[in-house]
Amino acid sequence: MDTPQHTSLLIGSPQGIFTDSPVGLRMCGTIFEGITAAQHGGFDTIYAVFSGLPEPPEQALEALHSVCPRARITILVQMHDEPAALELMQRCSWSVGVLDYLICPQSGQSLLPAGIVPPSPPGGLFERDKNRRIRELETLVMQDDLTGLKNRRYLRHFLPTILQKAGQSHCQVTLLLFDLDDFKHYNDTYGHAVGDEVLRQTAKLICRCCRGHDVVARLGGDEFVVVFWDTASVKVQCQPAAGQDRRKICQSHPREAVFMAERLRKEISAAAFDQLGPHGKGALTISGGLASFPQDAKTAEELLEKADSAMLEAKRSGKNKVLLVGKSG
Predict the structure, then answer these.
(1) Taking the chain, what is the end-to-end CA distance rounded to the nearest angstrom?
(2) Lowest-confidence segment of 19-23, 59-63, 242-246, 274-278 by average pLDDT
(3) Mean of pLDDT values over 245-273
(4) DSSP3 helix / strand / coil % (the chain, rounded to 5)
(5) SS3 sequence of 225-240
(6) Closest CA to 234 of 292, 171, 174
(7) pLDDT confidence band for 243 (50 / 70 / 90)
(8) Residues 6 or more apart in contact with residue 80 via CB below 8 angstroms
(9) What's the rounded mean pLDDT across residues 208-212?
(10) Is the pTM of this model over 0.70?
């Protein structure tokens, strides 16, 4: 039986990227070797390890795309590199429908091209089942199993990273923390299965109201977080003149974040939650708090605490509102 021709190319070192050895991929150590291979290989998919891309990476990826335009290019990034990968994709104007990224580590066998059958691991069915469970656990490390959003563990890694990056590039990060008002009442009245479906529908509404690069996570229960962050092209100017209001000069909560938070509140308030019966439309409201880096907080923990304080103030002042830090209802 003939060995199927390689249809996928891996550029860069797989160390730390895969949990097992990738098979069925042609491998190149550098982007320059990869460009040469792509010129003659006719690949359908090209994987490029983010940490191995030269500066400026967008030029290297564009060169790769130009020699193999039909290939889909996927950047393999570790969790702490995701903000930089998102900025890179925004700088690649040609990338729509062609360029994507994948958070690692991943199973090497999950990248197998069509027609390539992985070798049977020692131990047969038991070993294959163990590998499947490992891959499922890898997903659960970063993803909330109920809503499909990022989870608390992911946020704990992502938030300090994006704050560090924002500090270096003088960009803004605004965190929205909110929960569903009186959600326990709906859980107790309609049951947890209905409550779970409401949470899933809420997650979809959140994603619809946010930008593609903003991070949406479920902390647990009915509590959600959205991290709005600016790219390096948006600079913060926050040196007020004597006697001027710092918040007015700094715009410490980007207008986009305030607008999207209010839009989200209105969307959820107006949504028809059919699971809650004939009175499900307009039944749910949210209360939330917004806090901004670096004006309101300097660390991830402090940012969450400040947003939580604003959310509690929103609840005390009547619910169904999103408040900025330091603002009363």
Answers:
(1) 73
(2) 242-246
(3) 71
(4) 45, 20, 35
(5) EEEEECCCCCCCCCCC
(6) 171
(7) very low
(8) 157, 158, 161
(9) 84
(10) no
DSSP for 268-309, written as a single string: HHH-B-GGGGGG-BT---EEEEEEEETTT-SSHHHHHHHHHH
Assigned CATH topology for domain 8-142 = Rossmann fold (3.40.50)
26, two tokens: 């042609």
Average pLDDT, the chain: 80
> Per-residue pLDDT tens for 39-49?
887 788 999 99
Q: Who wins on pLDDT, 253 or 35?
A: 35
Q: How far apart are CA 113 and CA 212, in angstroms?
A: 28
* Domain spans, the chain: 8-142, 152-324
Element (H, E) at 246: helix 246-250
Q: Where does 152-324 sit in CATH, by number?
A: 3.30.70.270
Residue 48 to residue 220: CA distance in whole angstroms: 34
Two tokens, residue 149: 């959003």
How far is 118 from 104, CA to CA, in rounded Å?
A: 20
What is the pLDDT, as a whole number, of residue 140?
57
DSSP string, 131-195: HHHHHHHHHHHHB-TTT-SB-HHHHHHHHHHHHHHHHHHT--EEEEEEEETTHHHHHHHH-HHHH
How far lies 323's CA from each of 20, 58, 147, 231, in Å?
47, 39, 25, 24
Question: Hey, what are 49's tokens?
Answer: 């390890």
